[in-house]
Design a protein that fits this description.
Length: about 120
């Protein structure tokens, strides 16, 4: 009898989490982009939300590090016209010590990869 509620819980987790985790790969699709943009807009607008829910937290709990999560989300936010200040503010909601310095690090990494490939 105790297995039945557990099965329902497992089914609910798979129903809601599996489509998002399957959709998250190297290239974000339209559904993931829409989730990221909606989540960022709501949180930046000051809407009271639970920070344990949302795309950032789902990626982080799914095994992404903070920097991997930001590297995944940042291009989506830039594509949809979020300013650098609003992106930094969004990431600050999850990591109060975030200062936005990863941009230079990513540029250095890109140059290093280009140098190695050429």
């Amino acid at each position: 009898m105790r297995k039945l509620p557990f099965c329902f819980l497992l089914a609910a987790i798979l129903y809601f989490a599996a489509p998002i985790s399957c959709a998250i790969g190297d290239e974000p699709n339209a559904r993931v982009k829409a989730l990221v943009v909606d989540d960022a807009r709501r949180k930046l607008a000051g809407e009271v939300v639970d920070y344990r829910t949302g795309v950032y937290s789902m990626l982080h709990e799914g095994g992404f590090s903070d920097s991997e999560t930001r590297e995944y989300i940042r291009p989506i936010l830039e594509e949809y016209g979020f300013s650098e200040a609003s992106i930094v503010k969004y990431f600050n909601l999850f990591d109060p010590h975030y200062h936005g310095g990863e941009r230079e690090r990513l540029e250095e990494r890109r140059k290093m990869v280009e140098t190695l490939l050429n």
